[in-house]
Design goal:
Fumarate Reductase Iron-sulfur Protein, Chain B, domain 2; 2 domains; about 160 residues; mainly alpha; globular; 9 helices
Length: about 160
């Protein structure tokens, strides 16, 4: 069994009865070409889905898993498939930018000036407290990324 099939098997996809509740309940599927059931079924059948754009449309909200009457966890399969895709260099460039930002600043998607202004108007700090506002915590994130080799992996694999 190849790694793609293994990722699908880990979700208990063989229990799927093709009812379509996973795809029908998918908020991303309403806005994109993502069809969770079809994607995981293709992987289960041995098709290489790691280069499909819709693999990255899943928000990992787990609606599909919660709605499945047979307990198939398509989200876990999608996460495993994404991990395989990253190792093969198949992931959107925007993710590499977010990872670089996270490593360098502690914030993958810094707030825009417009959002900072809105936060100020409604009585919130312009910048939320997170790892980007704490040097010690940021150094821990960098250390973790260095130890795991994650940054090196995505830098070498990014498209």
């Amino acid at each position: 069994m190849n790694p793609i099939e293994e990722a699908a098997w880990a979700s208990d996809v063989e229990k799927c009865v093709q009812c379509g509740k996973c795809t029908a309940g998918c908020p991303s599927g309403r806005q994109s070409r993502l069809r969770t059931r079809a994607l995981v079924q293709m992987a289960y059948q041995g098709y290489d889905v790691t280069d499909l754009k819709e693999l990255w449309d899943c928000t990992t909200c787990y609606n599909c898993a919660e709605r499945c009457p047979k307990g198939v966890n398509t989200v876990d399969a999608i996460i495993k498939l994404r991990n395989l895709a990253v190792r093969r260099g198949n992931f959107p460039k925007v993710h590499l930018n977010a990872i670089e930002n996270l490593y360098n600043t502690g914030n993958g998607f810094p707030l825009s000036p417009e959002v900072a202004k809105i936060r100020s108007i409604i009585g919130l700090n312009k910048e939320p407290y997170d790892v980007s506002t704490d040097e010690e915590e940021l150094s821990k994130v960098k250390k973790l990324m260095d130890i795991t080799g994650f940054l090196k992996l995505v830098r070498g694999a990014g498209k």
